[in-house]
């Protein structure tokens, strides 16, 4: 995993005491900006993004960008799981469905990452959690030295404990997704979830307050997004019914009021009767 920052040598002029100028080469940081990342993204994914999902993509892109240029940030599989699971859940129901893969690929590549690498790491880590009862998963996350079946995860967690480690909301989402994979009931139970996250956070030297706040916000935003999708579906269904009614009226126009041509008998027949 690479970051979007690198150092180049730039020529600067340093004034001598006698008034002359000495050209000197000094290191100059050349850090990609958010605008650079967005420009790259929209070059890779050229189709418009549906309005209800555009904010999700922009916020995720900015968050990943800011992490990528932070010198204390290091890619790990828990972070990858957080990226993949948050993207998949917030983008659920996106149409056309093929565009969802295009958006995710562009998101990763605009940050000089490999989308397949993200997906592979996320799937392997989630599979690891699915095999373990929650008590064993929590024990291993709290004590990375006890992990025996996931060497890469063990090394990553031990590196987090040793520091420096740049905490992120996406890392927190990755942890929460692991708990869901192992024990969905635990993840839904507020007290058990809180106690478990506190235990893991303390072991990994992560702020308990930040961890709990980020998970609560994530769960709340998922609920809001689900409600927004339902509202959008209702609006689309109502619009579809309007179109169908207009099409039906066009094929079978209603008889104008006062038009008695079909109901009243001819005048000569009425007179003879």
Question: Can you describe this structure?
Answer:
This protein is mainly alpha-helical. It has helices at 34-44, 51-68, 77-90, 97-110, 115-130, 134-142, 151-162, 169-182, 184-188, 190-203, 208-251, 267-272, and strands at 5-15, 21-31. The chain starts with a strand and ends with a helix. A hairpin with a 5-residue loop joins strand 1 (5-15) and strand 2. The chain has a domain at 33-215.
Relevant terms:
single chain; 273 residues; mainly alpha; two-stranded antiparallel sheet; disordered N terminus
Can you describe this structure in just a few lines?
The protein has 273 residues and is mainly alpha-helical.
Write the layout of secondary structure elements.
Elements lengths: L4 E11 L5 E11 L2 H11 L6 H18 L8 H14 L6 H14 L4 H16 L3 H9 L8 H12 L6 H14 L1 H5 L1 H14 L4 H44 L15 H6 L1
Antiparallel strand pairs: 1-2
Helix pairs in contact: 1-4, 3-5, 3-8, 5-8, 6-10, 8-11
């Amino acid at each position: 995993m690479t970051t979007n920052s690198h150092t180049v040598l730039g020529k600067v002029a340093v004034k001598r005491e006698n008034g002359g100028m000495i050209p000197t080469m000094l290191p100059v940081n050349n850090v990609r900006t958010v605008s650079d990342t967005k420009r790259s993204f929209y070059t890779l994914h050229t189709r418009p993004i549906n309005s209800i999902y555009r904010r999700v993509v922009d916020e995720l892109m900015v968050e990943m960008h800011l992490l990528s240029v932070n010198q204390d940030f290091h890619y790990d599989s828990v972070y990858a799981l957080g990226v993949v699971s948050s993207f998949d859940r917030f983008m659920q129901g996106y149409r056309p469905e093929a565009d969802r893969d295009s958006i995710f690929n562009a998101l990763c590549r605009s940050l000089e990452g490999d989308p397949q690498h993200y997906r592979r790491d996320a799937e392997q880590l989630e599979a690891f959690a699915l095999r373990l009862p929650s008590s064993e998963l929590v024990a291993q996350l709290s004590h990375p030295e006890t992990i025996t079946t996931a060497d890469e995860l063990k090394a990553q967690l031990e590196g987090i404990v040793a520091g420096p480690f740049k905490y992120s909301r996406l890392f927190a989402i990755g942890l929460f997704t692991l708990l869901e994979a192992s024990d969905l009931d635990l993840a839904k139970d507020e007290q058990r979830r809180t106690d478990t996250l506190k235990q893991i956070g303390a072991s990994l030297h992560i702020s308990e307050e930040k961890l709990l706040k980020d998970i609560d916000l994530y769960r709340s935003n998922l609920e809001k997004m689900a409600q927004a999708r339902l509202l959008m579906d209702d609006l689309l269904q109502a619009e579809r019914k309007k179109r169908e009614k207009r099409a039906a009226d066009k094929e079978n126009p209603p008889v104008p009021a006062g038009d008695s041509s079909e109901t009243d008998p001819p005048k000569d027949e009425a007179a003879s009767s």
